[in-house]
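=== Structure Prediction Worksheet ===
Name of assembly: unnamed complex
Input type: mixed (protein and possibly other molecules)
Chain count: two
Listed entries:
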Amino acid sequence: MNKNVINNGPKEPQKNGVKKLALEKRITNLTADVKYAQDIIDTVREPFLVLDGTLHIVTANPAFYRMFKVLKKNTEGTLVFKLGDHQWNIPELRKLLEEVLPKKKIFNDFEVSHDFPSIGQKTMLLNARRIDHAQLILLAIEDITEQKQLEELKKRNDKRFRALIEKSTDAIALVNQKGKVLYASPSTKSVIGYTPEEFQKLTNPFDLVPPDDRKIITELFSELLKQPGSDKHAVYRIRHKNGKFIWIESVMTNMISDPNVGAVVINYRDMSQRKALETQKDDFIGIASHELKTPVTSLKAYTQILQKRFEKYGDPVASQNLTKMDTQINRLTALIEDLLDVTKIESGKIVFNKNVFDFDTLAKDTTDEMQLTSEMHKIRIKGEVKKQVYADKERIGLVLTNFLTNAIKYSPHADKVIVHLSADKNMVVVGVQDYGIGISKENIGTVFERFYRVKSPKGDTYPGLGLGLYISAEIIKRHNGKVWVNSKIGKGSTFYFAIPINGKPEKKRLKVQEGEEEVKHG
Amino acid sequence: MAKKILIADDDPSILDALKQIFESEGYEVETSVDGEVIAKIHKFRPDLLLLDIWMSGVDGRDICKKLKSQPKTQHILIIMVSANNDTKEIAKAAGADDFVAKPFEMHDLLAKVAQHIK
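=== Predicted Assembly ===
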């Protein structure tokens, strides 16, 4: 149409020349305006419809076609509610276009959810304007489906995480640098008796910790504050609202530098029951090993009486057999001792009876005793200590016995075991060398762990509880010494321990430490 | 005259075995299984008491302290016996002359008793 007007222009009479020029100019401008408007509509990323007064579609932008998967030829001139097989026949939209818009001229951000057969469930925000002079309606459609889904997801996640915290049997608190409680979860009530509100009113959550634990826990807290992102684990007592002290296992995580958290997260777990069970277990093993030792004691006494009698009345075979029987009773005793020792180590109740003794004599006595258990291996001592040592003689003897037992056990085809003795100014060093199966590289780090047991190449295990080296390592550690091992598979191993000659009184063990260590109370 | 030993333990088998051991070495032996140690002491007048620390119902430490605190009985040598090696210090604190851990080597026990009695 515009084109025609422009082309017809030059044919008009001269008089109208000025008018014509003005008209042409207006038309040019108008064309530019229409193009400009069309460009805007086309460029907008949101679907956009232009409707006429009768709600038929005049034009739609590419975003509309793209989103609703309809063709231009089926769209322009169609009643909007009939578009795409009536999928736009949405009651809310009908109401807006037919009732609201004629009165109000405008509506903004009207949210509509609709299941389109072609593209599925969508949530949209509709904005419309009535342009009266052009008899047009502009309808902008914003697809907010994803945004809605994200919001829903976020809401659900929030609810889930909140549930995790609120329904957890552990109490969880957020505490700021000064020790002020910013948040306490509902379980605070079931764990320590205080409601979250009461707990928050405390000037400091450590006020509930008895004084001797408090000092340690406060130190631990300030240490934690120096290390952003780190965590500390501690077991200590806390005064329940009912006045009784309960055992708490707590993990504190420093998240102060995280702007979204800005606090230390403290997790409180009631471990009174576990503590009680542990005590019960320790007591049980204590009683059990005591009870086991009673018959072993009389069994051993009778064996020795018989052994002596057969020796006296000249039956060497019976006497030898009874000596062997006595050795087996000693093995049984050692197993019972191991059980008892491991319990004491675990519960921190192990007591050392330190005395001054001659180390070489102990080494010789222990070696002589062990020699009786193996006819195949010749146990030799190389070197000497030539010093009096202050330590728990029996337990150091036990360590040497354990090393020798292993040396014999794991060198079934060898004929010797060597005990290397040496000393410098401060330390005694003992090495027990065997020519046995050796230890593979991947296992060498774990031999001193509790319940570690060697597997033969065929996968069979060797007899034993797997406690000997663990107990040995603990005994040496508590003497401020160290244990280590050199080994080559197929060639044999040398197990070493070193202890101070003048074993100073043990350092008082720090009650709370990072990781697995826990607070111990004497 | 034979030296006299009183053995107090709540396990009859241990008493039986120990009685045999000490009698074969020429000691005169009495045993107490029920904790009536003090009464037996006054009747038997032993030179040495082999006293179990943990007897059912009786605490060996109390008996030891009592005997060591009375002029009539404080001369009696007391060797305490326990299945728990850690109680050695407890025995010393109760005033015992020595300590033996269960189960014992016969020759160690005999040597220890002989060393105290002389």
